[in-house]
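Methods, example record. To illustrate the input and output format used throughout this study, we show the complete record for Probable membrane transporter protein. The sequence lines were provided to the predictor; the line carrying structure tokens was produced by it.
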Amino acid sequence: MIDLGAGAWVLLGVAAVVIGLSKTAVPASGTIAVAIFAAVLPARQSTGTILLLLILADMIALIAYRRDVNWRALVRLAPAVGVGILLGVAFLAVADDTAVTRVIGVILLVVVAFTLLRRRFGSAAASGRAPRGAAAAYGTLGGFATMVANAAGPVMSMYFLAARMPVKEFLGTAAWFFAIVNISKVPFSVGLGLITPEGLLLDLVLAPIVVAAAIFGRWFAPRLSQRLFERLVVAATLFGALYLLFA
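The corresponding predicted structure is encoded as:
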């Protein structure tokens, strides 16, 4: 894995920047990093390698938003997310690299659809309560997506919007949610052989980039043109999903 070409290292560096920004400035954009890692590294191993970088960025987000959290929403989501994670573990236990690559591609397409729906109906969702059964549906899909592809961001963003959370509460609840979920996935990832010594070494190289990007994102978020950036995120994620499906 360390014998990657210069182009691969550049792509992984870009992915590390996206991981940092996704936690402190642009929620749900981390799917771009998922696509890059799955394209550059073996699909199964990419999920374990990127997981540790996501946890690092989660810790920075917790420092920034540690007090702004809706614990009731997290408790409501917990059972369904647990079921989704277990379903993801079962899938990873029997799937090979090709299957994982294709499923990641499909999940990313679903993520794009959720993102587009959020942009189209976001204001309507924010004005009403989350529909009955939303916690079970979004939690299960989010748990499976995060275990298989680390791609639950847009799914959970829609749920948090439907729950009418204010901005700071949204960011704080998301920070705690992903920190708890990602840390809970570590034992499963180790048991499935997704976290490897080579992956840890690669993470050490990329970690400073993630930290720098997360700190920059915290500063840059109020100055960000969210509308334009979301369009770029959708386009890049769609490209990554199609690449994984048909490459």
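Annotations derived from this record:
The chain has one domain: 6-246.
Confidence is low (pLDDT under 50) at residues 124-128.
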